[in-house]
Write a structure and sequence with these properties.
Layout: H1 3-25, H2 32-58, H3 66-89, H4 93-117
Protein name: Integral membrane protein
Transmembrane segments: 6-24, 36-57, 69-89, 96-114
Keywords: Membrane, Transmembrane, Transmembrane helix
Length: 119
């Protein structure tokens, strides 16, 4: 994996989580700009998956459990779109809670990916 990209994804997720937390405190629903922010994070996740696939094909990894790594990558790719769909359908404060939990989940999954890759 490419660590600067991973740290950028974690930073972007934490910014999204902070934004969603602010909306939770203000009792507001998710707005379209937040969904665009999630789309940017999703694009970064896709780039990370492509880079990771390339590194795995080149054999430049140590003792990585490939199935575990891909499980975390695919899960990270699915969390934000599912949360965005839920937030789009749920036009209450709870949509912001869903986005907050999803952003923190992806940040945690990225942390685990770093641990798996460097094991």
């Amino acid at each position: 994996m490419f660590p600067p990209l991973t740290y950028l994804i974690v930073l972007a997720c934490l910014v999204q989580a902070g934004w969603a937390a602010w909306f939770v405190m203000k009792d507001r629903a998710v707005m379209l700009r937040q969904l665009w922010g999630c789309a940017v994070v999703e694009g970064l996740l896709l780039v990370q998956a492509i880079v990771t696939a390339g590194l795995l094909l080149l054999g430049s990894y140590g003792h990585v459990e490939v199935w575990e790594l891909w499980g975390y990558l695919v899960t990270a790719l699915l969390v934000l779109p599912l949360a965005a769909a839920w937030a789009f359908a749920e036009r209450t404060r709870w949509s912001s809670v869903v986005m907050l939990v999803a952003a923190l989940t992806v940040a945690f999954l990225e942390w685990r990916l770093v641990q798996i890759w460097s094991a």
